[in-house]
Amino acid sequence: MQEEISKLIELQKIDLEVLKIERNMQEIPQSLQKAQKEKEQLSKKLEDLDSLIEEKKKQKDLFEEELKQEYQRLKNTQARLIQIRGTREYQLLLREIEEIKKANKQKEDEILKLMEEIENLEKEKEKLEDEMKKVDALFKEEKQKFDIFCSELLANKDELLKKREDIIKKIPSNLLKKYEAIRQKKGGIGIAPVDNYVCEGCHMAIPPQLYNEIQKDNRYYECPHCKRLIYYKKIYTPEESQKGEKRSSLKKASSR
Known about the structure:
Elements: H1 2-26, H2 30-80, H3 87-168, H4 173-185, E1 191-195, E2 198-199, E3 204-205, H5 208-214, E4 221-222, E5 229-232, H6 233-236, H7 238-255
Helix pairs in contact: 1-3, 2-3
């Protein structure tokens, strides 16, 4: 009986260690999260900047094409001056030429402005790319640290699982099945100690009669509250129980 409970307690410790390892592997370190967030933010900025540069370039190309067509229209209009003999028609054509030149000047200014904007945006992009290289290097460094950390955890987990396989062979199948079912439902804890009338699985007080019964250690007991398997702590882990009593005594002494 005691041997079976002892093996269950040992199994529970291993299962809690495995659970702790799995949780640690799922928790991404803050340093890695920070680097990842900065990388994502910079990536988004670069993406937006590329879109803006592309949009400006398309606009510049469109204006240049329009200006090219207007230059040709100006050339054709100026050529017509030679063929015109009437003064009024000549004056009208001169006015049209001036309007074309004025419109072309505005278009040229707009193109120059766009070229300046593109140049500034390209410089901004270069700065962001340099910053991105630094952040990416930091991210890779933090990721490598975390990967190494996870590899070590996996190695520890494999060792624990091997020990687990050896232990479960020594536990009766019906008891193991019951423990596993409780453990799955109760956050990884299938068996818990009882000390000073309190189940350490749910931290609820058990009835005095049950507390007296578990001290006999002659069968399996369940907590009436959380339904976990329970055992008398002073029998299986007397050292931990004594430590708890010492802490309790110190608290009482300090409160006097």
